[in-house]
Amino acid sequence: MKLTCLSRGKGFYFPPCHMLNVCGFRILIDCPLDLSALAVFAPIPPGFSAVQDEEDFGHSVGESDGCESGNEERKNIEKPMDAKALIRSEPWYKTVANLHLWNLSFIDVVLISSPSGMLGLPFLTRAEGFSAKIYVTEAAAKLGKLMMEDLVSMHEEFRQFYGSEELGSPHWMKWEELESLPSAMKEIVLGTDGIELGGWMPLYRVPLSAADIEDCAKKAQKLKYAEVACYNGTINIKPISSGLEIGACNWTIRYPDGTIAFVSSSEFVPSHALEFNYNALRSCDVLIYSDFSSLDILETANKGSNYTAPEDSSTSSDLEELLLHADESSEEMDKLNFICSCAVDAVKAGGSVLIPIGRLGIMLQLLEQISICLESSQHKVPIFVISSVAEELLAYTNIIPEWVCKQRQEKLFSGESLFAHVELLNGERLQVYPAIYSPKLLLHWQEPCIVFCPHWSLRLGPAVHLLRRWHGDEKSLLIWEEGMDSDIALLPFEPKVMKMKVLRCSFLSGIVLKKVQPLIHILQPKFLLPEDFRQQIISPVSDSYSVLHYSVNETLKLPTLKEGSELEITADVISRLHWKNLQEQNLSITRLKGNLVMCDARRRILYSDELPCSNSEPPLLSGALDLQKLLTRLSEMGIGGSLQEGSVTTDGLSDARVLRIDAPSEALLEIRSTSTIISAANEELAFHIRDAVNSILDGT
């Protein structure tokens, strides 16, 4: 088994990406897009004139194509960090750059762990020669498809503004243009090592973006919760709930020589999604731990944590109680309550609230809590959800009980809705519209209001238009998730004169530090594979497992898990076997004939209609040939011979012993450690000698 980490990701919206080689099959785990990199592009300007802007745009491109001396000057001039430094072009999207170093046609399987891990999939499915089998949970496939459709819908504004796509690479990819970018933006484009420019791609395929998405969705095999899929009879793949989001999962991969558990970002006690089912990962041979979402973990470790590894005396029940303790879940609820109180205070003061948070679970919980806070304060303001897929998205979340937490499943059994937005829609306290310029929205628009809309990058979607509208209102509030550079993200909205309040918040996106070692202690893998930077955080607490650290873009080869191979023999084959006991070796042997097949990740022998041993086949013999016994047996059969010391065999080698037969006619026996060769002109004599040899050796 080999593991290559292609990207360690950047949290919830950009999960890690790995390539796994098992039994000769290449398995790609997740294919995300780094949408935070959209920050280097300028949003569509307000009140633009398409013709005028195209003229200005063409002029700026012409300037960049000027004489060499002009370019030489530009190389040494770094633009100041302001709105003019942003790239004024149709955005490209940043994929996993290291994935492009691989031949995509050699990928056999793709596993998608979350809706965010699916956004880059159309770039693969449209690639020439790509034919991998794609596995994803039903819920993640549906939510991921809606996210892709919404992204295409929001991107359409750029296509209308900038017109047809440029041939080849866009102007901003020219080196002189990249050199003039502010250093912070240049790092986003090129990466810290300056090698990520090749990861930028235009959004899906123009003009067939919708067709790309549909083609991608058709190629994916949707799995129900814990449904087992068998690939090529060799690998069994099963999704296990991770608790991160509705439809998000970890994977178990079983193959003939062992079991691999892949753990991505997970939550033990979520308030919306089905909890992390860690019990399904117990006693795996290999545990790949790729939860890098809690970025403050390393800082905490460097500062020194008061957490100590579990003692050997800790019982399994003690550790499980620690894992399922809902302290971080309570903290998350406190955050949501605080956000809701800030939102209500803003609308009470006469301001509006903009919430461009892309997490489905957080959005659904905020809708519930804000409506409760508004009702308790007896303050009525409209709540809008603006998205091209909002109506379908909200409807779908109410029909997937197998992927929500137990508390919400119980609500369904009691005849209630899984989430409160159903009642809010029925009571017209929540209004859903597909676009910011929807005629019905303009008809019912009222301020102050609370608006949920994409996109959290603040570069596309309704959020851009509303932020421009309210950025000068000191009573209004922007609720924005951490994860992007605020200095760059707010550049288009005049941050120096921006009066709108900004509430930056972070949400739990993985396993907290104090629960990592107890989890590993419970799972008890033979090999634990965390990323290299966690050496100080994840270390073996006992000799029961080995830790092998891996690094980005380096291949880690795992030692062989089993010395031999296991083989299953069906009962009908066993009933036809004839065993012979070898007393000296304390062993039983038999001749076996059947069909060797790979089925359900196991090697099996199935019954064959042919006879187990035909008369024409020589018997299988074992044991050491005692030459003195052989001479005695030949003498009893009337065959005389003697052992020739220092003789050379017919092939010129002297590592064999030679027995020469002189009566009743001449023959020669060459006895080696693994074979005995009989040479005789008289065929009948040769058969008699063979029978003598067989009578001394154990055969079957």
TrEMBL record:
SUPFAM superfamilies: Metallo-hydrolase/oxidoreductase
Primary localization class, coarse: cytoplasm
Gene3D superfamilies recorded: 3.40.50.10890, Ribonuclease Z/Hydroxyacylglutathione hydrolase-like
Range of residues in the leader sequence: none
Annotated Beta-Casp domain residues: 367-488
UniProt KW keywords: Cytoplasm, Nucleus
Subcellular location: Cytoplasm; Nucleus
Superkingdom classification of source: Eukaryota
Keyword Cytoplasm applies: yes
SMART domains referenced in this protein's UniProt entry, alphabetically: Beta-Casp
InterPro entries with a match to the protein in the record: Beta_Casp (IPR022712), Integrator_9su (IPR027074), RibonucZ/Hydroxyglut_hydro (IPR036866)
Record-given protein name: Integrator complex subunit 9 isoform X2
